[in-house]
Amino acid sequence: MAYSKELIDHYENPRNVGSMEDGASDIGTGLVGAPACGDVMKLQIKVSADGIIEDAKFKTFGCGSAIASSSLVTEWVKGKTIDEAATIKNTDIAEELALPPVKIHCSVLAEDAIKAAIQDYKSKAATANKGQDAAE
Ligand code: FES
Ligand code: FES
């Protein structure tokens, strides 16, 4: 099976590997697993006060396509608003990396991970706002 150059590049030189402090209120963490194969992906975003994603990191326990998908997503989301980032589709990832059909679920994992990270950030922000209201 021939893998695309872009896929191999992200697999061999993954961008933004690592993790950020989980508890911080400006960090959103998404941790998801792929039912199809048991692989796990953790994706984190750091969001500025005006809702721009300043940084993103990932750790993926999984196949090369999952690593490449998460690497690509961390690159894509930087500089985007959380609402823009939420519109990333697994089909965009699969197309960019030219994933073969059996590897499509790996890109689904990356879409799920970024959505989960955004959700986590939003729920933290909502709690923080409530705290502020209560203090006023
Ligand atoms: Fe899990 Fe791809 S099947 S590594
Ligand atoms: Fe399961 Fe890639 S995430 S094979």
TrEMBL record:
- List the record's Gene Ontology CC terms alphabetically: cytoplasm
Domain (NIF system FeS cluster assembly NifU N-terminal): give its ranges.
Answer: 2-126
Q: Name one GO biological process term.
A: iron-sulfur cluster assembly
InterPro entries given in the database record? ISCU, NIF_FeS_clus_asmbl_NifU_N
Question: One MF term in GO for this entry?
Answer: iron-sulfur cluster binding
Q: Which PANTHER family match?
A: IRON-SULFUR CLUSTER ASSEMBLY ENZYME NIFU HOMOLOG
Q: What does this protein do?
A: A scaffold on which IscS assembles Fe-S clusters. It is likely that Fe-S cluster coordination is flexible as the role of this complex is to build and then hand off Fe-S clusters.
- Similarity comment: Belongs to the NifU family.
**Name of the protein in its database record:** Iron-sulfur cluster assembly scaffold protein IscU
Species for this entry: Magnetovibrio blakemorei
